[in-house]
Amino acid sequence: MTALAPRPRFGRRPSRNPLVLALARHALLVAILIVILYPLLWMVGASFRPSNEAFGTLSIWPGNFTTENYTEGWSLGNLNFSRFFLNSLVITLLCVVGNVVACSMAAYAFARLSFPLKKTMFALMLGTMLLPYHVTLVPQYVLFNELAWINTILPLVVPKFLATDAFFIFLMVQFIRTLPHELDDAARLDGCGHVGIFRRVVLPLSIPALGTTALFTFINTWNDFLGPLLYLVRPETWTVAQGLNGFLDATGESAYGPLFAMATLSLAPIVGFFLAAQRLLIEGIATSGLK
User: The whole model's pTM is what?
Assistant: First the structure.
């Protein structure tokens, strides 16, 4: 007499069908995505509602659709957001160029050159990442004030050309170290020095790391509010972040409709730049060994 198969103690076992598991994972990811994107989608919907109805509902879709917030928000007093967008674009592009050029050169020096106190200087460079931004804020302001750089873009741009962002140097050092040294030796046989190796070998192969640096620099600079608030005083020099702050009134008369409209427009360059460079971002982080 054959024994009966034992019945499962805790009921039916969960399905191991690959299709069911894939659907469950995708449903979970979609639910998480909705939770993450809801504030952004609500802001976009609120930008098309009248100001007095901005906080009247949790719905994403506007009830009384209007585009007046965009036309009203584009003109802020005697200025308009075209000036703010231009200022932000100039500062951001200069910072991107400065970080990509200066940090890549510093990273090549740490990764490929041999010089006294190299490890000590690299450790000190990494140690600057532990310093809060506010620790160096007052000394930097005093220095830039002595140089008569206040109310110009120089305090925001010039440090980027001096390789002051230790994180991006570390990122590119990790990437350059993965490149075979045989490529350097082959370039030397062709008569290249360090400048030629850097320009002809390292830079073309470091595109993912350079793209990651450019992307993060673009996002950080475009969203920066404290730096422009300190150094850019005149309204005609304001950035987009400062322009958005102009809609907030301490008396309680804040124009939330135009604020949401301009905040929505301010996200467009970031989203566009991210979509264009996301492949380089993934490759740069993956190949540099960062988590």
Answer: 0.83
